[in-house]
Amino acid sequence: MHDDEPEAAVLRLGHRPGRDDRMTTHVGLTARALGADRVWFPDNAGQSLETVADITDRFGGPFEADLTDSPKALLREWDGRVVHLTMYGERVQDVETEIRRAHRDDGEPVLIVVGSEKVPFDVYELADWNVGVTNQPHSEVAGLAVFLDRLFEGEELEAEWEDADRRVVPMETGKRVESPDETGTEASDDG
Amino acid sequence: MHDDEPEAAVLRLGHRPGRDDRMTTHVGLTARALGADRVWFPDNAGQSLETVADITDRFGGPFEADLTDSPKALLREWDGRVVHLTMYGERVQDVETEIRRAHRDDGEPVLIVVGSEKVPFDVYELADWNVGVTNQPHSEVAGLAVFLDRLFEGEELEAEWEDADRRVVPMETGKRVESPDETGTEASDDG
């Protein structure tokens, strides 16, 4: 997670344009907001890439988003550990300590693989850990979020964002968005 | 979270049929998988309701999914505390202890409100807490997932499911789905 920590990257595997656009975008935005350093999307997910790049421009980084035309090669050649999130995997509460130890103590980069529909069997075999955030069907975005929050033990929530045009100021009630350089407040049109 | 705990319910506010179908469905499935007792969807989200009910039939409960034609009335008349998840709210790490105390120690039911696009201002005012899982734009599904995992302090991952037709057996590699009554294994066609 940034600075002196080994890399944590997210690979979105599989994307059906149209149907998966928002899920793929949310995988990317969740990766960014919850402490990953970068995301790779399949090369037919250019729209998701644009959205994530635009959010990074406005709300800050560091965060890299890229397309890949060979996710399998990326996976095979990854110089570090691979975690595949799947409802069929080992329980996250049983393996998170071991994964954290590899990542934070042993300094190994971690690639977190998030599938869409059917994930080919060799991904299960290539992964160092197949991990279930519950063994129930729910959402790859939810699974990624809980996994990152546990991998970083909540420290990702304290991140400082660089080169942001705007910063949301936490409030009990209402919305407040500031420019980091100024004391000015702007109205927001976000939901 | 089930049994002797006060209720935790999720209210999905706003739904645009077509565009929001999968996000709304994932809000419901995440609520179920991560320990909430029920979800309400807007009454134009019947398709999401069907999917969540079908998953509950197959993978077990208890979990209730319903439509509401008056989410605002439900919110106003809720007999307990209201948490509204929003990127403009107070930082989850700053308020989670207080919310957990109200819910688990004082036994107050909690209604967790998850918006889609623009949330009306009176929702911010009706909420006991406006809570940001980061003050970054990402995903309402991710925010809900991290919030529930923190509210229940991971205990939701140990849930036992009742009346399930099938149960996924956590595995290091591969997929295994069993019928809870038998020792038989069936092939899965889930992704």
UniProtKB/TrEMBL annotation, chains A, B:
Keywords: Cytoplasm, Methyltransferase, S-adenosyl-L-methionine, Transferase, tRNA processing. Residues 165-179 have a biased composition (Basic and acidic residues). One of its GO terms (biological process) is tRNA nucleoside ribose methylation. Residues 165-191 are annotated as: Disordered. It catalyses: cytidine(56) in tRNA + S-adenosyl-L-methionine = 2'-O-methylcytidine(56) in tRNA + S-adenosyl-L-homocysteine + H(+). It is an enzyme of class 2 (transferase). It is found in: Cytoplasm. Residues 180-191 have a biased composition (Acidic residues). GO terms for cellular component: cytoplasm. S-adenosyl-L-methionine binds at residues 85, 115-119. Pfam families: Trm56. GO terms for molecular function: tRNA (cytidine(56)-2'-O)-methyltransferase activity. The keyword Cytoplasm applies. Its EC number is 2.1.1.206. Belongs to the aTrm56 family. PANTHER family: TRNA (CYTIDINE(56)-2'-O)-METHYLTRANSFERASE. Specifically catalyzes the AdoMet-dependent 2'-O-ribose methylation of cytidine at position 56 in tRNAs. Homodimer. This is tRNA (cytidine(56)-2'-O)-methyltransferase. It comes from Natronobacterium lacisalsi AJ5.
